[in-house]
Give the backbone structure.
Amino acid sequence: MIYNKETAITISEYLLQIKAIKLNVDEPFTWASGLKSPIYCDNRKTLSFPKIRTFIRQQFVDIISEEFGSVDLIAGVATGAIAHGVLIAQELGLPFVYVRPSEKKHGLENKIEGYFESGQSVVVIEDLVSTGKSSLNAVHALRAGGCEVKGMLAIFSYNLPSAIENFEQEKCALYTLSNYDELLKQAIESNYISEKDLKSLIKWRKDPEKWGS
């Protein structure tokens, strides 16, 4: 769920302005999974803009304080959320770790990098939530390490039905600064997309697998 309507509008505007998000119905993008998508999102671009990355950091800090209270640890999902996680941890004066998608194949074969202890409460930072599987993989790793995961915060979510279901099944609270639906509203208002494109983009979110077929 988006945490604040005004924040969602601002984030959507920022992401479109810096081309962190691109929308193209006629020439869709291909995800690593092979899924055809009319949207491409690279939130790492936000790190190149001090005003935007500071705004994102402060929104996350405010949500953590208001929703989760006292927290022992901040964890970032590798690689897109590592830098944002560090900024948040620094602002809150908290330790930071990051979670790899899989264990290293050498050395200590860690999946969680950094120092943490069993029993610590943690908030997970993510840059983008698609189906939720890779994001929740980090949650599983932290729980397996004995941490109490209070929830996850993400810059943006495609708001796919499968992601909503996955987070509900894992009983993991998810707050996002903006999402696909809010982005489309801003895109149509700014004439970034046409009404015809909007209909196709809405269809994609409802059923991504069938959209490209």
In short: The mean pLDDT is 94. The radius of gyration is 17 Å. The chain has one domain: 5-211.
